[in-house]
Amino acid sequence: MVTHLKNEIRKQILAKRNALSKDEIEKLSDKILERLLSHPKFPEAKIVAFYMTKGSEVDTKKMIERAIKEGKQVLVPVTGQKIAFYKFQSFDDLVQGKFGIMEPKSKDTPFEQCPDIIIVPGVTFGLCMHRLGYGKGYYDRYLSDCKAFRIGICFDFQIIDKLPVHENDQRMNCIITDKRTIQ
């Protein structure tokens, strides 16, 4: 029953998100970037993990560029059996990986320690601070062992009041949208 409900929510939110134009995504992503930069945890973070944007997700490119400009070490994920984070070199050092998501071609060994902050994608987030991803559980498994400060980012319409939750679903510390920051 929970899985069926989660799939229905995913379908509805993705249809709405996929209807956004590239210009709308860029403008809303810029607003999210400004909110992220003004979050008190961001300036003090030395290591920040970002997801690589796919499709109509909040665009993280400017966020990554800004973090690098501020001297932060940036990590990005590689998805295999599980998710692992690697040092980001440059946007020229990316190749399409599993699920069509860009990932570093130059990867030595995964970064072992938890980042200070992890920017987490989601199809939708609830006011309960949980997220609904694409249903594979990669981020939930990673977050269960990592105590980084978790910031979920999404467009404001992706926030819903009640989200069905499973015992393995991991909570965010904060959710940032184009209109608000939820703590």
Automatic annotation (TrEMBL):
Pfam families: 5-FTHF_cyc-lig (PF01812). The keyword Nucleotide-binding applies. The keyword Cell wall biogenesis/degradation does not apply. SUPFAM superfamilies: NagB/RpiA/CoA transferase-like. InterPro entries: FTHF_cligase (IPR002698), FTHF_cligase-like_sf (IPR024185), NagB/RpiA_transferase-like (IPR037171). GO terms for biological process: folic acid-containing compound biosynthetic process; tetrahydrofolate interconversion. Keywords: ATP-binding, Nucleotide-binding. One of its GO terms (molecular function) is 5-formyltetrahydrofolate cyclo-ligase activity. Transmembrane segments: none annotated. Belongs to the 5-formyltetrahydrofolate cyclo-ligase family. NCBIfam families: MTHFS_bact (TIGR02727). This is 5-formyltetrahydrofolate cyclo-ligase family protein. It comes from Candidatus Bilamarchaeum dharawalense.
